[in-house]
């Protein structure tokens, strides 16, 4: 990655650096608590520390990086209390989104969700693929609910949740439980049952919290 003059209509270099760091964090190549070695990263990417520091500010705003005065930056560590708070907020916001979709989505939009759900069922034996498609399903619900403020908040909360990435799916039998929960959500949406969709989505996310909290 080399520095270049930023031109109108092109992404700033620090945005590319932020993307690179974000993926390193989500893949756990940079684990929670890891100190960010700015000099080493700048050398690895072939850039100065200026765009790197701008990228770190972006990730700090997202909650992925914690910055300490005179101590530099490190990957945020999420304790059990914080994780519970994230999941509880997600359960409220995404449950409301599911209820909205149940009554507002048209047949074609519900078919989109069914297609993603079918892909999820097909990947029950591939944890990485299951995790990816599961996230796609949740974001499709948010997209169809069509509230950009809710989408923005949930996007940020899910980034923090991914610091504890996959742990909720490591529990024995959790993938199978998650799939059954998705089936219940999908059925409620198909039947345009808003309150059942709300209940099932909220229960699904809090079940994920129970599984994730068990790893602490």
Automatic annotation (TrEMBL):
InterPro entries: GntR_C (IPR011711), TF_FadR/GntR_C (IPR008920), Tscrpt_reg_HTH_GntR (IPR000524), WH-like_DNA-bd_sf (IPR036388), WH_DNA-bd_sf (IPR036390). CDD domains: WHTH_GntR (cd07377). The keyword Transcription regulation applies. Residues 11-78 form the HTH gntR-type domain. Gene3D superfamilies: GntR ligand-binding domain-like (1.20.120.530), Winged helix-like DNA-binding domain superfamily/Winged helix DNA-binding domain (1.10.10.10). This is GntR family transcriptional regulator. The lineage of its organism: Bacteria, Pseudomonadati, Pseudomonadota, Betaproteobacteria, Burkholderiales. Pfam families: FCD (PF07729), GntR (PF00392). Keywords: DNA-binding, Transcription, Transcription regulation. One of its GO terms (molecular function) is DNA-binding transcription factor activity.
């Amino acid at each position: 990655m080399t520095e270049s003059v930023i031109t109108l209509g092109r992404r700033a270099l620090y945005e590319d650096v932020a993307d690179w760091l974000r993926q390193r964090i989500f893949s756990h190549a940079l684990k929670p608590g890891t100190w960010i070695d700015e000099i080493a990263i700048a050398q690895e990417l072939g850039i100065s520390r200026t765009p790197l520091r701008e990228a770190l500010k972006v990730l700090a705003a997202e909650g992925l990086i914690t910055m300490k005065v005179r101590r530099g930056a490190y990957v945020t560590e999420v304790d059990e209390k914080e994780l519970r708070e994230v999941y509880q907020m997600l359960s409220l916001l995404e449950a409301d989104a599911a209820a909205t979709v149940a009554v507002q989505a048209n047949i074609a939009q519900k078919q989109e969700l069914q297609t993603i759900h079918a892909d999820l069922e097909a990947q029950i034996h591939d944890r990485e693929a299951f995790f990816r498609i599961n996230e796609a399903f949740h974001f499709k619900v948010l997209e169809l609910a069509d509230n950009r403020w809710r989408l923005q908040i949930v996007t940020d909360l899910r980034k923090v949740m991914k610091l504890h990435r996959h742990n909720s799916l490591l529990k024995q039998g959790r993938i199978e439980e998650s799939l059954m929960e998705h089936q219940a959500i999908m059925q409620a949406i198909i039947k345009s049952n808003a309150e059942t969709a709300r209940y099932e989505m909220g229960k699904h996310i809090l079940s994920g919290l129970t599984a994730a909290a068990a790893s602490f």
